[in-house]
Design a protein that fits this description.
334 residues, 38% helix, two-stranded antiparallel sheet, binds ligand PBG
């Protein structure tokens, strides 16, 4: 427990807030550029940047532009980038075969980045929603999302991504048993150093709306994802999921969305003491950015404050679409 202060006026807690120098001196938490993972949307084409209407300031980039973004990340000091493909609707199938095509968009982008900036950590998304017409993170039969069949597909997908050179795999699907299955398959294939950052506590959330536009999965989504993603009312279940994924071989865990679930970040970090990340998702970005663009909020200020909140909650890092912008701001002020 904190030491209890002397009574007023011996204690005047405002003393330490009087000047900027005193305030930084006693500040407990800081966001650093090295805490950031930058999620980027990839599309086909050459020299293209296609704005995403519901995420102002964010665009889908052709691979050559993604490589430029990767170079920018390195120049800014951002340690990792995370790729999400916008898949051509013609390649979407019920069996999601494009997901483990070694030449799919995501795998080509990984290779291009690794060739240009090998020092940048590349993370990929392991989930089937970009590869089928119904927008679910699994194989669907008669309206049911099949767990074990999906895990088999995810293992193939994970192996193709590791083969392409991804450093961190991010399973965002919420199927049971996928971490263990992936970890065993990676070991067997000789990918001993591929990390798994498990989307362990991923909630069924309305805040993913703009992302589903960005990857072209929204119009298609039938029903919602609540038979596999978590119920917003639960906290103990998040602890069970994190414990389970760590036991199956995850290196790091994630809580998602971020801002409405800071209590989960705190509980996870305190209980497990493992690298813990939050994903400040598309809807969180959209909401702050919309208010800022309307002049209702100071954009830079709420961006910085919202991201610092993750550090205060115990996170080691955060996935955020603000990554390059906050990095520039932090680099300026240092
Ligand atoms: C799906 C996936 C989603 C996000 C990342 N991976 C959306 C979903 O679960 O429907 C959301 C990211 C964001 O909203 O920024 N595999």
């Amino acid at each position: 427990m904190p030491h209890s202060p002397a009574a007023y006026p011996r204690s005047r807690l405002r003393r330490q807030r009087r000047t900027p120098a005193l305030r930084v001196l006693v500040r407990e938490n800081e966001l650093r550029v090295s805490d950031l993972i930058w999620p980027v949307f990839v599309r086909e084409g050459q020299d293209l940047e296609e704005p995403i209407a519901s995420m102002p300031g964010v665009a889908r980039l052709s691979i050559d532009r993604v490589v430029r973004a990767a170079e920018e990340a390195v120049a800014l000091g951002i340690p990792a980038i995370c790729l999400f493909p916008y898949t051509d609707p013609a390649l979407k199938t019920a069996g999601c075969e494009e997901a483990w095509n070694p030449e799919n968009l995501s795998n080509r982008a990984v290779r291009a980045i690794k060739a240009a900036v090998p020092e940048l950590t590349v993370m990929t998304d392991v989930a089937l929603d970009p590869y089928n017409a119904h927008g679910h993170d699994g194989i669907v039969r008669d309206g049911v999302i099949l767990n074990d069949e999906t895990v088999e597909a995810l293992v193939r997908m994970a192996l193709a991504q590791a083969e392409a050179g991804a450093d961190i795999l991010g399973p965002s699907d919420m199927m049971d048993g996928r971490i263990g299955a992936m970890r065993d398959a990676l070991e067997q294939a000789g990918h001993k150093d591929t990390l798994i950052l498990s989307y362990a506590a991923k909630y069924a959330s309305g805040f993913y709306g703009p992302f589903r536009d960005a990857v072209g999965a929204s119009g298609a989504l039938k029903g919602d994802k609540s038979t596999y993603q978590m119920d917003a009312g639960n906290t103990d279940e998040a602890m069970r999921l994190v414990a389970r994924d760590l036991a199956e071989g995850a290196d790091m865990v994630m809580v998602k969305p971020g801002m409405p679930y800071l209590d989960i970040c705190r509980r996870v970090k305190e209980a497990f003491h493992v690298p813990t990340f939050a994903y400040q998702v598309s809807g969180e970005y959209a909401m702050l950015e919309a208010a800022a663009r309307n002049g209702w909020l100071d954009g830079d200020r709420v961006m910085a404050e919202s991201l610092l909140g993750f550090k205060r909650a115990g996170c080691d890092g955060v996935l955020t679409y603000f990554a390059p912008r906050i990095a520039r701001l932090l680099n300026q002020s240092s």
